[in-house]
Amino acid sequence: MDTSRNGHSRGARRGARTDRRAERMLGALAIAVLGLIGVMVVTVFVKAWPSFAHNGLSWFAPGGDVDSQLRAMEQATPLPGHAQDYFRAWPLIWGTIVTTVLAVVIALAGSILAAIFLTEFAPGPVRRVLEPVIRLLAGVPSVVYGLIGILALAPYINDHLISNSRKESVSFVVQLNGADLATATLILTIMITPIMVAIIASALGAVPSSWREGSAALGVNRWRTVVRVSLRTARPAIVAATVLATARALGEAIMLSMVSGSRGFTANPLDGVTFLFEPVRPLAATIVRESEGLSIGPLAHTVYAIAAVLLVSAAMLSLAGWGAKQPLKRYGIRA
Amino acid sequence: MMLTDEESLEEQAAFEPPSEAAIVRPPRQSTRSWPLVDRIGYWLCWVAGISLCLITSAIVLFMLVKGVSYLRPSLFVQSPSPSLRQSEAGGFLDPIVGTFILTAIGIAIAAPTGVALAAWLSEYGRPSWLARAVESAIEMISGVPSVVLAIFGLLVFSQGFLGFLSQNAANGAVYGRSFIGAGVVMAILALPLIVASTREALAQVPDRMREASYALGKTRALTTWKVLLPAIRPSIASGIALGMGRIIGDTAIVTILLGVTLKNEAVGSTPILGTLRGTGSTLTSYVYNNSPAGEGNAPQKAYAAAFVLLMVVLALNALVTRLTGTGGRGMRWWRPRVAWIR
Amino acid sequence: MVEAEGGVDPLMPPPVRRIVIDRDPRVVAPRADANGSSGAETLGASARRRLARPAVSQVIERMRIESVSLAYGQNWVVRDVTLPVRQGEVLALIGASGSGKTTLLRSLNRLTEITAGAARSGRIALDGEEIHEMEVNELRRRVSMVFQQPNPFPMSIFENVAYALREGPERRGMRRSRRHELEPAVTDVLRRAGLYGEVAGDLGRSALKLSGGQQQRLCIARALAAGPEVLLLDEPCSALDPISTAVIEELILRLRESVAVVIVTHNLQQAFRVADHVAFMHLGELVEYGSSEQVFDRPARQRTREYIGGAFG
């Protein structure tokens, strides 16, 4: 055996060289993937810049009808009094905010209660049936939800929940049909609930039984034990589930574009109950609808601007989720 | 009751179980004594649970009924044909083929890349700033909406130098939409799932396995390739299945990057490359297009296709559950021992 | 109500003694004591095996177990046991694994009802009231339990103790209590548990960062916070090191003045050190019950003699 060079055999040295080569190749792959993602982020912002540059911060502000602005860009005929890049995204932003916040809040409350039900109070057979069903629901493609929404739920709401008088009261501003805020929020809630229930229930199930037993031995009833001990222990999971659900709600384009409404309208909460039945158009759904005309300059800039806003929100969301988990590490609740 | 010394060791025989009248079996649940606030919480949980059951069964039954009623075997073998009487004409053969092609491309790119990246992150991971950056980037992708990935892909594939990957118009404008383009973006979509599954599995492999291999003089690369990866094959498979599920279920990328043709239109005359360069549809875009939101207006076909889509997703989920034992990442929702506490 | 048991005056400090070794040839070789000498009993010169016991002013019967039998399914784990539980003394339940002593302990605060398929017969009375007619959470606040593995909640030390103070219908007013309102009660009970001196500086620290012995004392403090009449200890020191064990044993002796203490232990030396009365159980039946001097020195039953001599464990 050739044992020159610091006592390493030739075989070992060859091995070490292979190893270094492999490491370098894999490292190169990592850099390539990182580069690709970096390029994506940079490109989106670069393409988006003209739209932001032209409109400034008012890009986010209300001002006119979003649809006519987009059509103006597409047909290269500027609206009177404005340049071609004129865009005020507020109706879209408002639509996104309302649908996302409502859906996440309702889904969070419902998921926590349902998860407690599943882990604590549900009879055995119910639990055994529900667990795989919920996991299945978490994997249903959004287009199927959209189909159910537009073919079943929207007509139902249109026929039974929106009275004719209500339609007439706003008909001079907007047409009410079943494709509206209520339908969109409802289906969005149903979409994000299964994954939240799955995550929270598995975290509740992982609470050590010694804590639950100890709490029972102190004379604390089951409900208060769950709320004070189990939920607290499961808080990182609840945060993670909320972040995941919000990300999904923000980025949901297909289902919402099928269901949410014909116009980019700013639903007005001051309208009372009618608020629920007004059409909305969230940001991601807009991208899908305008994707045909991406070769046209101003339209492309606007669409990329919308994408940039979505990217930034997704990033801020993960940051918020990470931040929310930090204080809990003090008490030994491992995320 | 104390026993006397004279009794034999067979004390069990002396014990008579109490009569049935004396035996009490405690009832299971009783919330009568709870304060009102707690009882409200209890009932709210029941309401939430029952609603969950009702809604899930409503969705499942609805799709089952509608899907089965509109599903005909002929749909599987006919290509879609544009026709005014949509309910008679055509099936979804092309969309099924399209789904298949797209998933194949996506996984063919994402699987080796994902596994390699996970192996690098887990076994090498130097320099550490690069490893952290890659981790953050992959986590970022998993949070990015697929529409954003889609339009980024469109931008890239519309560049002139990538014109060979899709159709080119007469004036040199690159169409940018093709199976290849969509496939690459699908790969990006599936990548985080494969990386996460593989990394988690690698983290669970005990260090003794690695040490045993190193002690035999094997390099890290060889150990990873020959020892570690084969050991975690089920997890890699489940990661791939999860990625496939995500690809099959995605519509946004398809709508934006695959063109909106009902049939798979090949570009150019070369057999395989032509199809890949061409446009087409998948099950998801077929459902989208046939719904009132799209151009077609054949809800029956949309239901049938959606049903097929659901079946495929269900089968994939079942596969993942089989592969990993308890489904997904070892989620178990209830304790076996302490059943309930008053 | 004061009861005298077996002629022993509870106010007199007991003499120093060792565990009696039976010279019956069937029995396994005798144990050596701490000094290394073995064999015949020696008084006085040997190591003190019983702890110095603070005097107790009175002994009150708190719980009475009458003809209690417990079963899981068809398997009768506890068979027709009758015992008194008194404040002012420590009752030790000893026996081999599977003798039913832990199940009996758990039945005292109805923790056996957690398991499906549990059945019982007989009466258990707390201060004259049948415990199965009480509201169960009310009972568990009056009869507290400390488990084998310390199980502090993932909260601060303060919050662990405050948890026991806050939860409970009659404490509804306390649920929203601010920290400064609960602080005197929390520090008082931490002092009783002998933990306050060690953690006084930072009650906001996570309870999981304490050592094993401190965690167990925290659990004892938590159990005491609700002001129970009976304290149940299920092998509380089996997971701890000897020094922590010694600290907790001293604590138990101090506590017995104000709460009735029932301790399950498979460590005979521990039983000898702390117990006033000992109940030996075997295969679910109560074989012998008496004062600890009587059971350890002059066991009335052959089986007891065998167990104490180490014939089986």
Describe the SSE topology.
The complex is a heterotrimer of chains A (335), B (342) and C (313).
Chain A: H1 10-55, H2 66-75, H3 90-121, H4 124-138, H5 142-161, H6 164-170, H7 181-205, H8 209-217, H9 222-233, H10 235-251, H11 254-259, H12 283-289, H13 297-325
Chain B: H1 36-70, H2 74-77, H3 93-124, H4 128-143, H5 146-157, H6 179-204, H7 207-215, H8 220-231, H9 233-249, H10 252-257, H11 271-277, H12 283-290, H13 299-324
Helix pairs in contact in B: 1-13, 3-6, 3-9, 3-12, 4-6, 5-6, 6-9, 7-8, 9-13, 12-13
Chain C: E1 60-72, E2 75-87, E3 90-94, H1 101-107, E4 118-126, E5 129-130, H2 136-142, E6 143-146, H3 157-166, H4 172-175, H5 179-192, H6 196-199, H7 212-225, E7 230-234, H8 242-255, E8 260-264, H9 268-274, E9 277-282, E10 285-291, H10 292-297, H11 302-309
Parallel strand pairs in C: 3-8, 3-9, 6-7, 7-8
Antiparallel strand pairs in C: 1-2, 1-4, 4-5, 9-10
Helix pairs in contact in C: 3-5, 3-7, 5-7, 7-8
Task: Explain this structure.
The complex is a heterotrimer of chains A (335), B (342) and C (313). Chain A is built from 13 helices and no strands. Chain A has 335 residues and is mostly helical. In chain A, helix 1 packs across helix 13 (297-325) and helix 7 (181-205) packs antiparallel against helix 10. The longest helix of chain A has 46 residues, at 10-55. Chain B is mostly helical. Chain B has helices at residues 36-70, 74-77, 93-124, 128-143, 146-157, 179-204, 207-215, 220-231, 233-249, 252-257, 271-277, 283-290, 299-324. The longest helix of chain B has 35 residues, at 36-70. With 313 residues, chain C is an alpha/beta fold. Chain C has helices spanning 101-107, 136-142, 157-166, 172-175, 179-192, 196-199, 212-225, 242-255, 268-274, 292-297, 302-309; strands spanning 60-72, 75-87, 90-94, 118-126, 129-130, 143-146, 230-234, 260-264, 277-282, 285-291. The radius of gyration of chain C is 20 Å and the shape is globular. The interface between A and B is large, with 97 and 99 residues.
